[in-house]
Every structure is written in structure tokens, then in C-alpha cells.
Specification:
Layout: H1 2-27, E1 39-40, E2 49-54, H2 59-73, E3 77-84, H3 90-97, H4 104-125, E4 132-137, H5 142-146, H6 178-192, E5 196-200, H7 207-222, E6 233-237, H8 260-263, E7 268-273, H9 276-286, H10 290-293, H11 296-302, E8 309-314
Parallel strand pairs: 1-7, 2-3, 2-5, 3-4, 5-6
Antiparallel strand pairs: 7-8
Length: 316
């Protein structure tokens, strides 16, 4: 009898293990019921400063729009830094200018359009206009600035420029090199002295997103002396990853679940729970990105981030 019970227990454990393995292999995300078990991210209080770095106009709202709104409501000072103006998205430019082959000026104009969308979206979330910084670096070229063009100027294949053509860039006419971008990031961190820094994950499969995470982490590491005697806390958010978010599309009654693979390479994952008021604000802000929402495939992905929570990853 005891032997039979032991064998049944072992068989049950093996079935559970096999089922879990097959689940993760197929879906590659944690089960939705695991999200409430995640620790809640602390929302910064009045007097604290937060800097959110985004590779393109809309990433900040997609990834941490709710966190931004909750931080502002809590009295924190939030600064949002846009690394590029997202001017290299061909499909949205084709839609905007009704051209199969948009020219360099079209792409630049598209960058200005996306800037205005970010301003409107962030105003809804409560961010002051003077706290929105556009660096103007090349869309699709941040990986090159990190590796092959750290000292040598990079030319955008879209705008055909090797320096920022935008009249409102943080440093006007800044030459497209990784060294200049790193100096800008260091200058911003020293100027605003944030307690919290939020950026895209280096494990994001979009090269601009991964490069943004690495650039920001390197800049934080180079702060000397540390701000107020200690370096800011850094968190990462995720936009592009295999089978993430899952399922795609508008499911605002469901949870955003992290990829299982990232649990093994990150110290932890925090959730940012969104109440109805905050989720409504995020949805309203997201609706300002009309140039992106006009593209059906983009709309499907963007609406996937309107969930009951957001996710923040802590560094390994």
C-alpha cells in the first residue's frame, strides 16, 4: 500500500513537472495567476525624481504609462527622455504621406508628428512639457552608435542625416555618435539627479530598445560621485519579446504576464497594478499616437499593453 502510494506520488509529480515544462515551452510566459504573487512596485513620493528613457515616441506610454501617471499623482517629479523621434517607421510614413517610398524630408516630418503625439500623451499622464526631452538620435541606429559608431558619425538611412535635423533636440545639430549620446545621458542624470531611472530592457529583441537599456545602464554606472551619495535605482520595462505580450490585442480585463525566460536572467519582476482611473488615463494617452494606431498590426500590439498591470524588471 505504501509502495503504491509512493509510486502514485512520484507519477503525479512527474506529470506536474511535464505539464509545467510543456506549458512554458508553448506559451513561454508565466501563467496569469502568478502575477498577483509578484511584489508591488513602490510608487515614488513627493519630492522624489524619476527619469523614464524611451527609444521611440510611444514606448514610454506603452511600457510605463500607468507608472508615470501614478508617480505624478503621488507628487513625484517625472522627466521623460526620448532617445529618437521614431522617424524611421516606414509603414506609418507611407500611411501619413501616401507614398510607397517616403523621402528624407517625409521621415523628418514624421519625427515631428510623433513628437507632438508624445507631448499630448504625456500631458494626459501629467508630465510637464518642460520635462519632456527629445534627444533626436537616429531611429534604428542606436545599436550602431553603441558598437560601430561610438566615435565615427552614423548616417540615418531614413533622414539621410549624420546629425540631428530637429530644431528642438536636447543638443541641436548633435552629431550621431555613441560618445555624444553617452555624454547627453550623463548630463541629464547629473542635471536632474533622479532617485529612480527607468529604461527599456537590454533583453528586448528590438535593437534600439536593447541599446537604450545598455546606454542608460552605462551612464548610471559612470555617475561620479554618485547622486546624493548613492546611485539611482534602475528598473527596466519590456516592449518586444517573443510571445509577449500574450495574447495580443485589447484585453484590458487581463494581466500582463512576464516571459518565463526573463525570470531566470533577472533578479526579479515587480508589478504595477493599475486601477480603473489609471488604466483609463493610459488608454486615453495611447489614443494620441494616431500615426501608429493607423497601422493595424501596430495597433494590435500597442493595445496589448492596456492590461490590469505593468511590469518592471530589476537588474541581475
Amino acid at each position: 500500500m505504501i509502495r503504491k502510494l509512493v509510486l502514485l506520488t512520484i507519477a503525479g509529480a512527474l506529470l506536474i513537472f511535464l505539464g509545467t515544462f510543456l506549458y512554458f515551452r508553448h506559451y513561454q510566459n508565466l501563467p496569469e495567476f502568478a502575477v498577483p504573487l509578484l511584489s508591488e512596485a513602490k510608487i515614488p513620493a513627493k519630492g522624489e525624481k524619476v527619469i523614464v528613457f524611451a527609444p521611440h515616441c510611444d514606448d514610454e506610454t506603452l511600457g510605463v504609462g500607468g507608472y508615470i501617471a501614478k508617480s505624478v499623482k503621488n507628487g513625484a517629479d517625472v522627466v521623460v527622455v526620448l532617445m529618437t523621434n521614431g522617424d524611421g517607421h516606414r509603414f506609418s510614413s507611407i500611411e501619413e504621406f501616401r507614398k510607397i517610398y517616403p523621402n528624407a524630408n517625409n521621415y523628418i516630418q514624421s519625427g515631428y508628428t510623433r513628437q507632438e503625439e508624445s507631448k499630448k500623451a504625456l500631458e494626459i499622464l501629467g508630465v510637464k512639457d518642460e520635462n519632456i526631452l527629445f534627444l533626436g538620435y537616429p531611429d534604428g541606429g542606436l545599436k550602431e552608435l553603441l558598437f560601430s559608431n561610438f566615435n565615427v558619425p552614423y548616417q540615418s538611412p531614413y533622414t539621410k542625416q549624420s546629425s540631428s535635423p530637429y530644431n528642438n533636440s536636447y543638443h541641436q545639430n548633435v552629431v550621431y555618435t555613441g560618445g555624444n549620446l553617452e555624454n547627453d545621458l550623463l548630463g541629464i542624470l547629473k542635471k536632474y539627479q533622479p532617485q529612480i531611472v527607468i529604461t527599456t530592457s537590454q533583453f528586448d529583441i528590438h535593437s534600439d530598445h536593447a541599446a537604450t537599456g545598455i546606454f542608460v545602464q552605462k551612464a548610471v554606472d559612470k555617475i561620479d560621485p554618485p547622486i546624493d551619495g548613492q546611485k539611482p535605482t534602475i528598473y527596466y520595462y519590456l516592449i518586444h519579446f517573443r510571445h509577449f505580450p500574450s495574447p495580443k490585442g485589447l484585453h484590458s480585463d487581463r494581466m500582463l504576464v512576464p516571459p518565463a525566460k526573463l525570470i531566470t536572467i533577472s533578479d526579479g519582476v515587480l508589478k504595477v497594478s493599475l486601477d480603473k482611473e489609471t488604466l483609463d488615463l493610459k488608454e486615453k494617452a495611447l489614443s494620441e499616437y494616431k500615426s501608429q494606431l493607423r497601422v493595424p498590426t501596430l495597433k494590435n500590439v500597442m493595445e496589448s499593453f492596456l492590461r490590469q498591470n505593468e511590469l518592471l524588471f530589476t537588474p541581475k
